[in-house]
Amino acid sequence: MQQAKKISKANRPVTPVQPTREHVPGTQQAKRFKKIKLLTIILTCFALSLVVIAQYSALVVMNYRLGSVRSELTETRESVRALELEAAQLGSVSRIEEIAREELGMVEPEVNQLHVISASQRERYQPGE
Question: CB within 8 A of 106, min separation 6: which ones?
Fold first, then answer.
């Protein structure tokens, strides 16, 4: 009988045993899922690092601009101070008097050339007199 069993087993075609995916823990699908998950995590970390780097580079650019604007403001303030000083010097009474005498040939009026006008004389003044 045992020989009969051996012969029947030998005549039967052998089919390879294929494990089902649910029972084998290290299948290709599980490996693929882990790879996709790892790739997703790596890409997310890369994208977040790019965002952080972009923020820091924007901060550096803004600090550079702020520094240049501050230096420009300092230069403008110095220029305003210099122009105010020059305006004060040009508008001084002594300088205006000097220009009037030297360049325009003006002289101070004599005492008999001065006429003092009071408010009461103005009221009596009629145009065309």
Answer: 100
